[in-house]
Write a structure and sequence with these properties.
Number of strands: 3
Helix content: 40-55%
Strand content: 5-15%
Strand order of the largest sheet: 2-1-3
Distance between the termini: 72 Å
Shape: elongated
Number of domains: 2
Structural class: mainly alpha
């Protein structure tokens, strides 16, 4: 029975069997995709990368609060650290989710000086950048310790 089970597993589950089946499926799916028009185009608010959903939607249930435009932003990093951040390889993990390098430099340039603060809304208004990626960039800056975020005083 053990030998028969092993033989069956090889016949059904071996990569040499599975890959051709997947290739056939991909070819079958490619035919209608090539000739049919898209009937359910993504909405403007829908995230475009199917492999990485919008983290605001994915983790909406996790935070104790959601960042808003009245949150206070304080600089914690120096100009040198900010420039290193732009070139830092770890940022490839958020590529496409946050601002591009040029937009990130513009955002970093408008951060307040060490003894000052601004709001998230003022920071966004000072830059002509897409809203959602800019919010993600601010959160990424906070994660890396470049800025601190705090709720506004009530």
């Amino acid at each position: 029975m053990g030998a028969a089970g092993k033989a069956r597993a090889k016949q059904v589950y071996d990569w040499s069997v599975i890959l051709p089946d997947y290739k056939a499926l991909w070819a079958e799916l490619a035919e209608p995709r090539a000739k049919d028009s898209e009937i359910a185009a993504p909405a403007d608010s829908q995230f475009a990368d199917p492999l990485r959903d919008d983290p605001f939607r994915t983790f909406v249930g996790y935070p104790t609060s959601t960042i808003s435009e009245d949150y206070i932003v304080r600089r914690r990093g120096t100009d040198v650290e900010l420039e290193q951040l732009v070139r830092f390889d770890i940022n490839s993990a958020v590529g496409g989710l946050v601002l591009d390098v040029t937009q990130m430099r513009a955002l970093l340039a408008t951060l307040p000086k060490a003894d000052e603060h601004t709001s998230v809304g003022e920071l966004l208004d000072a830059n002509d950048v897409p809203h959602a990626p800019a919010l993600r960039a601010i959160l990424w800056l906070a994660k890396l310790g470049i800025v601190s975020l705090s709720k506004p005083a009530d």
